[in-house]
Amino acid sequence: MTFTLIYIRYLQIIRALKDGGIGSILLPFVIAAFSLGSFMVYQNLNYGLLLVAVLLFFCLGLQVSRKDKNFAQLHLENWHWQMYAEYVLLTLPFTITAIFTRYYFYFPMLLVLLWFVPLWQFKPIQKTSFKNISTLLPAAYFFEWISGFRKSFLGLIPLYIIAIATCWIRFLPLLLLWFMITNIINFYNEFEPIHILKANHNNAKDFLNEKLKKQGIYICLLFVPVLILNSIFHPDFIEINCLFLGIQLALLAFAICFKYNSYVPQQKNSASNITLGIVSMACLIPFLLPLPILFSLVYYKKAVQNLNLYFNDKD
Question: Residue ranges per domain, the chain?
Answer without folding.
Answer: 1-123, 124-315
